[in-house]
């Protein structure tokens, strides 16, 4: 990819640098498992920026939350369709800036036009690890409206500051609240008395539980268990999950204090019965936030 001197960008070093570049009106590259995209903050797009995007990725898209599209009553892009959205004199730059302007109204747009709007999930990459979601998240992190211009590429381009979708997700998980305490009950068990604290997952609405014994703090026994219906409920022999839970509760009771964090999974019940669990970074982040809420080092 050839860049003019005015658009010369340096190599990458993470989400913070990528967001800062967007805040300056520059273009960054976002890479994911399904490909890569050039991204710019829609509210700062100039004619030069729009032409650069179109020249290196085809029709310019605009990623924005469903709430923004619903307010404007604008149809989102449907794969395989010819739906475009435009504003002004057919200028992609003016279209993008208008889509990022909270004061814009439906009558300011004409259909069809030069820009493809793409509806993103409300919780961004934490809900769906897509290029469009990462583009909107980066625009928000940059302090701009959650609206981003983007064009998908078939391959990564050299010379651009870049960041990955997984890095954007990790950045958000480390800085944003993922769970909230929703329930509190006493739970007498064969091992001793426990306090069951329920947590609601703010990303997918799931529910997690922390079983607390005594007054846990620094140095207390901490165990994390990811949901396994096959072992936890039915005692399946292909895993040792049920025994692991029993051992953890016994260890915590003998120590006098501690926490067992039980993290619900996202997989269907049937899939958990027919295969082993697959741990992911989400489990660690959810458990870590629960433990911090309890004042226990993880």
Automatic annotation (TrEMBL):
Gene3D superfamilies tied to this protein: DHBP synthase (3.90.870.10), GTP cyclohydrolase II (3.40.50.10990)
Molecular function in Gene Ontology: 3,4-dihydroxy-2-butanone-4-phosphate synthase activity; metal ion binding
Pathway note: Cofactor biosynthesis; riboflavin biosynthesis; 2-hydroxy-3-oxobutyl phosphate from D-ribulose 5-phosphate: step 1/1
EC number: 4.1.99.12
Domain of life of the source: Bacteria
InterPro entries named in the record: DHBP_synth_RibB-like_a/b_dom, DHBP_synthase_RibB, GTP_cyclohydro_II, RibA-like_sf
Domain GTP cyclohydrolase II: 181-290
GO biological process: riboflavin biosynthetic process
Coiled coil: none
Keyword Metal-binding included in the entry's annotation: yes
Pfam families, sorted: DHBP_synthase, GTP_cyclohydro2
Keywords: Metal-binding, Riboflavin biosynthesis
GO cellular component, one term: cytosol
Function: Catalyzes the conversion of D-ribulose 5-phosphate to formate and 3,4-dihydroxy-2-butanone 4-phosphate.
Name of the protein: 3,4-dihydroxy-2-butanone-4-phosphate synthase
Biological source species: Amycolatopsis carbonis
High-level lineage: Bacteria, Bacillati, Actinomycetota, Actinomycetes, Pseudonocardiales
